[in-house]
Amino acid sequence: MDSRLEAVRDTVLARNPGEKEFHQAVIEVFESLGPVHDRHPEFLEGAVLERLCEPERQIIFRVPWTDDAGRVHVNRGFRVEFNSALGPYKGGLRFHPSVYLGIVKFLGFEQIFKNALTGMPIGGGKGGSDFDPRGRSDAEIMRFCQSFMTELYRHIGEYTDVPAGDIGVGGREIGYLFGQYKRITNRYESGVLTGKGISWGGSLVRPEATGYGTVIFAQEMLKTRGLSFDGQRVVVSGSGNVAIHAIAKAQSLGATVVACSDSAGYIVDEAGIDVALLSQVKEVERGRLTDYAARRPGSNHVAGDSVWDVTGTVALPCATQNELDGDAAAKLVSNGLIAVAEGANMPSTRSAVSVFQEAGILFGPGKAANAGGVATSALEMQQNASRDSWSFEHTEQRLTEIMVGIYDRCAATADEYGAPGNYVVGANIGGFVKVADAMLAQGLI
Ligand code: NDP
């Protein structure tokens, strides 16, 4: 790391003790930014990095709710409004028992650069709760969402902060959150949340966008080696929103996706994952991958172990942070891996990224490769603002153009800074310069 940035890094780490995922995200970005500060001394003079690492606002709140038996539970809610240099704070809400401030801050920090890369007018933020939705009834989910929004509503708005989904927050939860916002404020403010249902202000392609976008980014990387998805053997982690649509898109381009996972294990299906069955099991029935294996002849479920033990030429990590470590990366490389595109946020550890880069694997970091979701959220905001709704084909075309644009920006920036093919450098610098310029232009705020 550039020595001028080390002191800033040390201060950030000391000011935010115990937030290891946030530290990891900050260090990963700082490692790319030395050359930018050679060209832009004004960023150092303006203390842009110091300001960027301190969220503009952090909200932590109590979320009390009752379960179906009438027992009272108390969870913790978070919204970190990280940076509004480019637009209203924008980023998802995550409901998962692992959520604490360090996770929300890592996600919010990444979101700043990701949103800048999309070219859309959106700042960076993230939120969530340590609430565990698994095994909860619809009525319990609704009561939790209503309690969560009863505090959150005063902090968000079309021009302020626009949350969306993430792990554990999909269309059902966005519906309950939107309903409660409307009830409290007496305003039908479509632009306050994205990921809404199609009949009440949502955008076509939003559910598919992150997974589709990840595959589009990977396809652009493969083209540089004269390859495509056709004939690739793909391994995916996760089996949620991002994973399912990444699988569908990869297979529509001629790949065979032979494995995917959840937190209990993975399935192998050499004939190619049956997307309709996977979607039925995971999205409609909210079941487990064991249910898929039981209903799909020729597939098998492996409990416990890592999906990265499965051989593939393309890996799409689409589950969660730090799910792919250096050992898993080395195994994938020795099994013939060509490319990795991160559908999840920071799924590869720093040592995994080093293994991929040293082996010359095409590597698309999450802040670029999974930006299709937030970009389509911004398209949803555009449709809401103009009270319009676009066709699937038109919206998908826009998504494709945005993803190819992000790829091109990452590739061009990497070239410009002497690191051709290094999309980590391209994404970090490309996103950072845009935000830093805007911050300086807006004065000391
Ligand atoms: P979902 O809740 O729909 O699915 C998450 C999937 O990941 C599930 O299969 C889940 O398994 C698995 N998973 C979650 N936590 C763990 C864990 N600790 N260990 C192993 N597996 C785990 O979430 P999404 O698909 O929306 O999100 C997946 C990733 O993509 C996240 O990193 C998210 O931040 C990122 N992302 C999402 C976007 C979106 O538009 N939704 C946009 C950009 C990034 P199980 O069911 O067993 O919990």
Protein described:
The protein is of the alpha/beta class and 445 residues long. Among the domains are: 57-188, Leucine Dehydrogenase, chain A, domain 1 (Rossmann fold, 3-Layer(aba) Sandwich), CATH 3.40.50; 207-369, 3-Layer(aba) Sandwich (Rossmann fold), CATH 3.40.50.720. Helix content is 48%, strand content 16%. The chain contains 18 helices and 12 strands. It has helices at residues 3-15, 20-30, 34-39, 41-45, 48-52, 101-118, 138-152, 171-185, 206-223, 241-252, 275-284, 289-295, 326-334, 350-358, 366-369, 372-385, 392-416, 423-441, and strands at residues 57-66, 72-83, 89-95, 124-129, 161-164, 233-237, 256-262, 265-268, 300-303, 314-317, 339-341, 362-364. It has a 7-stranded mixed sheet with strand order 9-8-7-6-10-11-12, sandwiched between helices. Helix 6 (101-118) crosses helix 18 and helix 9 crosses helix 10 (241-252). The chain starts with a helix and ends with a helix.
Which short descriptors sum up this protein?
445 residues; alpha/beta; Rossmann fold; 7-stranded mixed beta sheet; 5-stranded mixed beta sheet; 18 helices; 12 strands; binds NADPH dihydro-nicotinamide-adenine-dinucleotide phosphate
What would a concise description of this structure say?
With 445 residues, the chain is of the alpha/beta class. The chain contains 18 helices and twelve strands.
